[in-house]
Structures are given as structure tokens and as C-alpha cells.
Here is the input.
Amino acid sequence: MSDLLETTRINLRASTEAKVVIEQAAALMGTTVSSFILQNAYAAACKVVTEQNTLRLSQSAFQVFISTCEQAPTPNPALQSLMNRQ
Here is the structure.
């Protein structure tokens, strides 16, 4: 995240209580409110994206998947023609 050369602004509104707690947390972490919010929002966003992009299978479903991948089908004429193109 710190490798990014460009920065852009993110605006948000918060309740007074949320602002006070965030300011306290930022001070306890020895960072600015902006840095605190960005670091925590970025980490949460990465987690959400990773979870959405991760396929979870049961052990039995995984075994079926692996077995299917290991059983290469015989190429049909259309595939053979495509692979022979230069």
C-alpha cells in the first residue's frame, strides 16, 4: 500500500462517538487518524476481496475436482484444429 505513487481523497462522515474512539485509537497506535482509518479499512477490504476470490471445497468435493482435472478428455476435432493454428 505504501508503494503507491498517487494518492486520492476519501471523504466520510462519522458520528461524534465514532470520531472520538477513532481519534483515541489512532493516538494509542501513535499514528494519524487518516493513517489509522486507511490502514484498517485497507486491511478489512483486502480480507473481504480475498474471501470472495477464494473457493472453499469440502474434502470430498476437492477429491472430485482433482480427479476430474487428472482425467484429460480426448481432444475433439475443433480443439485439435485450434491447437494446430500458427
